[in-house]
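Technical note accompanying the year-one report. For the benefit of new consortium partners, we illustrate the data format agreed upon in the data management plan: each record pairs a sequence with a structure-token string. No post-processing was applied to the example shown here.
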Amino acid sequence: MADTSAQGPGTVEALSLVPKAEARQSMKDFKSDQEVRWCPGCGDYAILAAVQGFMPELGLAKENIVFVSGIGCSSRFPYYMNTYGMHSIHGRAPAIATGLASSRRDLSVWVVTGDGDALSIGGNHLIHALRRNVNLKILLFNNRIYGLTKGQYSPTSEVGKITKSTPMGSLDAPFNPVSLAIGAEASFVARTVDSDRKHLTDVLRQAAAHPGTALVEIYQNCNIFNDGAFEVLKDRQQAEEAVIRLEHGQPIRFGADGSRGVVRDPHTGDLQVVTVTPDNASRVIVHDAHTASPTTAFALSRLADPDTLHHTPIGVFRSVDRPVYDTQMADQLDAAIEQNGKGDLASLLAGGDTWTVVG
């Protein structure tokens, strides 16, 4: 595995229990024999290729990697990975993955989900996985639409979105997945884009090295039902003024020759985008993904206009060290066994108050 010592605290511990691959691997080793069945041009193809290309970097045996998905277009992902996997229940992938990661600490567990699957029926499961800090990686594909069910509005669709289920425009205020994750005290939160292979791979690398839950929102184009939703972030000319690339330890500047920057308003404390001048250059914020307080990371997540996507930050918003749930649970079990010996399931089931029902 590549050196990740500069990517945050505790990076080695995260995968220390997982057996390593015995032979050198390539992208081909992680491609299954299943025909990939997404619509031609779907952004899922780019994400799949990036994940398959990145997997050899982990240096892990394929048998010790698991992909768990829910329901949706993205949830076909496990079929296409030559690892263990499970195409599970709508919205419940984080719950199933939590059980797996907690009981099998020798596995590297990944969740693949969509904006509908994760943030609608699966919303509760997602936030509880994040707050518990289970050692799993969640890839949230966000295309701002329901694709599998043919184009209804989703929890991330913008207000006024006209779809088959909202012919007069959506009335719902959309979720911001990054804001939601930071608000749930997630220890690692990032955002990337399907078509930026280099950036996507770098974010995956950092997420994999992080001990605990890592949530990666991936802006993904649905060219059938919501084509061009993120075009402003992908078009080279527009992206220069729209995309804010977050790099830990670096001033938050963007635009042509770094002409734009993010500063804190001295009166309100809010973050704002300004044209950088000699007078305000010293006020440009230096990004600190490892700071304990989530305040600035949350403020950064609110910069983007939900309609135009202007001033959209991408990269790692937050990467902090927190106790890992499955490690703590294993410690409790070890302590209980040391104090009381191994439990007797039959005695537990028959113990306490029991009732006999006679006909």
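Partners are asked to follow this layout when depositing records. The domain at 13-250+289-335 is CATH 3.40.50.970 (Rossmann fold).
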